[in-house]
Amino acid sequence: MTPLPAALGGTDLVAWRIDRERYAETWDSGEGAFLYGGRWNNKGVRAVYCAIDPATALLEVAVHVTFPTMDTVPHVLTAVKIIDPAAVHVVQPPDIPDPAWLHPGVETPAQRAYGDDLLAEHGIIVLPSVVSTESWNLIFDPEAASYEKVSQRPLVIDPRLHPTGQP
Cβ distance 122 to 139 under 8 Å? Predict the structure, then answer.
């Protein structure tokens, strides 16, 4: 279950990540981001992309691999506890140097460099999601952040997201 926010009695900052099952053991390596880059990092920079809630994690993955793939290829859902929430640097939408970076499209070198700098300075950052504009992504450098895996289990999505016989 998603932990309750502090205002409702919760205490932990938990982030969520979805990976193909074959990468379950290396979920926190940042290898994919290192090899290919991401919205907020260049190739050669390790970054682990998560979301603050599991629904946003689902959308963040589905936008890249589609619901049919998520329904037919085994995936895992990992919950990650951030040890020191005070260490997290939150980037509010008005703080983003170029508002276009918060819209779908190809990432720019300046956007990736901005993310690289934030990760190098803070180790853990929270930024607005582009896929779910009222939600947040949490990205961390696995060598600089303090975190622990809380759980990891098979991902099961509602079959209505990929009705049988419809691509």
Answer: no
Q: What is the pLDDT of residues 8-50, one digit of tens each?
A: 677 889 999 999 999 999 999 999 999 999 999 999 999 999 9
Please indicate, yes or no, if residue 3 is contained in any of the structural domains: no
Please name which of 72, 102, 80 lies closest in space to residue 28, comparing C-alpha atoms: 80
pTM of the shown model = 0.92
Single-letter amino acid code for the residue at 72: T
Q: How many CB atoms lie within 10 A of CB 51?
A: 25
SS3 13: strand
Classify 7 as helix, strand or coil: helix
Which domain, by its residues, includes 78?
Answer: 14-160
With respect to residue 166, please indicate whether it lies within any of the assigned structural domains.
Answer: no
For residues 130 and 132, what is the distance between their CA atoms, to the nearest angstrom? 6
Domain count, the chain: 1
